[in-house]
């Protein structure tokens, strides 16, 4: 049966009151009536839930997160997404007005499972820190490349829902969900495409879950071995 929902935005939230309204506002500009935002909240104790409920928009669906950390919170949002295309979203960035349109055009023109776009890196006040996240990470597709040094960044990713069955469940022992999704798209899907369009302002601040700086070498080796093992036997 044809999917009636065009795009699902899978958002994971936790105590995001400071920036979440800017994030949701920028997403809503991109949406049609055929789209939805699935927000999995992992037990926020600030005003995050109040801010979300104040929208009173039927496209915004708030669900309870599993309270098992960011990976499983995103996994919960993805599991409950109904769209043909699934876009990942953090709680503190800003989308450009043409993000979904640009991404869907690339999907329609190419046989791929995952799309990753570039981003302008900004600070908490939206002042530019780096004009290109891709340049920071030498971002590009490739299984070996992205096991060695990950350049899949969730807030810049979208994927086709037909690979959900391969993505879920997301193993809790891996480092991050976005690397997992990207590699699954390359190995078990129709591959990935990295596009140079900068379609969000990627906000870096003291409360970010992800880190731009790497782990120690022993920790990185351990993480890679776990990731390889999980992909092989998933």
Concise structural overview:
The protein is α/β, with parallel strands linked by helices. It is built from 9 helices and 9 strands.
Give your account of this protein's structure.
By secondary structure, the protein is of the alpha/beta class. It has a single domain, classed as Spore Coat Polysaccharide Biosynthesis Protein SpsA, Chain A (Alpha-Beta Complex), CATH 3.90.550. Helices cover 34% and strands 24% of the residues. It has nine helices and nine strands. Strands 1, 2, 3, 4, 5, 6, 7, 8 and 9 form a nine-stranded mixed β-sheet that branches.
Helix-strand layout with pairing:
Layout: E1 5-13, H1 20-28, E2 36-41, H2 48-53, E3 60-64, H3 70-79, E4 83-89, E5 94-95, H4 99-109, E6 114-122, E7 128-130, H5 133-137, H6 143-148, E8 157-160, H7 164-167, H8 177-188, E9 192-203, H9 217-232
Parallel strand pairs: 1-2, 1-4, 2-3, 6-9
Antiparallel strand pairs: 4-8, 5-9, 6-7, 6-8
CATH topology: Spore Coat Polysaccharide Biosynthesis Protein SpsA, Chain A
Strand content: 15-25%
Q: Supply the CATH class.
A: Alpha Beta
- Can you tell me the residue ranges where pLDDT is under 50 for at least 5 consecutive residues? none
Would you identify the CATH H-level superfamily? Answer: Spore Coat Polysaccharide Biosynthesis Protein SpsA, Chain A
CATH architecture: Alpha-Beta Complex
What's the overall geometry? globular
Strand count? 9
Distance between the termini: 27 Å
Judged by helices, strands and strand pairing, the structural class is alpha/beta
Give the radius of gyration. Answer: 17 Å
Helix and strand string, N-terminal first? EHEHEHEEHEEHHEHHEH
Helix fraction by DSSP (H/I, runs of at least 4): 25-40%
Overall average pLDDT: 93
Count of discrete structural domains: 1
Give the number of helices: 9
Please summarize the sheet with the most strands. Answer: 9 strands, mixed
């Amino acid at each position: 049966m044809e999917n009636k929902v065009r795009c699902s935005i899978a958002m994971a939230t936790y105590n995001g009151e400071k920036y979440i309204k800017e994030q949701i506002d920028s997403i809503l500009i991109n949406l049609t009536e055929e789209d939805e935002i699935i927000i999995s909240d992992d037990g926020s104790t600030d005003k995050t839930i109040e801010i979300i409920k104040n929208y009173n928009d039927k496209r915004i669906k708030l669900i309870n997160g599993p309270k098992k950390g960011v990976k499983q919170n995103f996994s919960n949002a993805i599991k409950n997404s109904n769209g043909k295309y699934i876009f990942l979203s953090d709680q503190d960035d800003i989308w450009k007005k043409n993000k979904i349109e640009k991404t869907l055009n690339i999907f329609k023109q190419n046989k791929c499972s995952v799309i990753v776009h570039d981003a302008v890196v900004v600070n908490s006040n939206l002042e530019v820190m780096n004009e290109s996240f891709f340049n920071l990470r030498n971002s590009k597709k490739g299984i070996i490349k992205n096991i060695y040094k990950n350049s899949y960044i969730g807030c810049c990713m979208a994927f086709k829902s037909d690979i959900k069955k391969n993505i879920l469940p997301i193993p809790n022992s891996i480092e991050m969900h976005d690397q997992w999704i990207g590699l699954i798209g390359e190995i078990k899907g129709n591959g990935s495409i990295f596009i140079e369009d900068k379609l969000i302002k990627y906000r870096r601040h003291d409360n970010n879950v992800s880190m731009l700086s790497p782990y120690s070498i022993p920790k990185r080796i351990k993480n890679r071995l776990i990731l390889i093992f999980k992909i092989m036997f998933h």
